[in-house]
Amino acid sequence: MADAHLYLHFNGNCEEAFNHYISVFGGDFQQISRYGDVPSDHPMTPEESNKIMHISLPLQKGSMLLGSDIPAAFPKAVMGNGYYISVNAASEEEAKKVYTGLTEGGRIYMPLEKTFWAPLFGMFVDKFGVQWMVSFNGTENK
Asked: In angstroms, rounded to a whole number, what is the distance separating the alpha carbons of residues 56 and 67?
């Protein structure tokens, strides 16, 4: 079966967003490449050359959170409501930690609480405009 990973585009604040995500999920970045690292004949401003061309943060069970800044020559990234990143926590404690960390500065649509389908579920948009769902299904995976 093919792997599926989450890839997010940002308008110049990818590094800030991923530093926040690593503070929530932990771990280490697997790769960080900047536009200035790319051999190119196209002139770039110092600010643009420091932007993130590609960053990867391994998550649990082989999934990855990937991202980049959109170059100035491309249309701006538009965050929309047609997607959510769904995090299925391994424990109630982890669900609460991830939810608390990611909602900081964001907007809560649904608080993390018991629902008819799960012991814990919540929905929100983080301070970077990325929409998330966090859940715990009741079976601890230790």
From this structure: 7
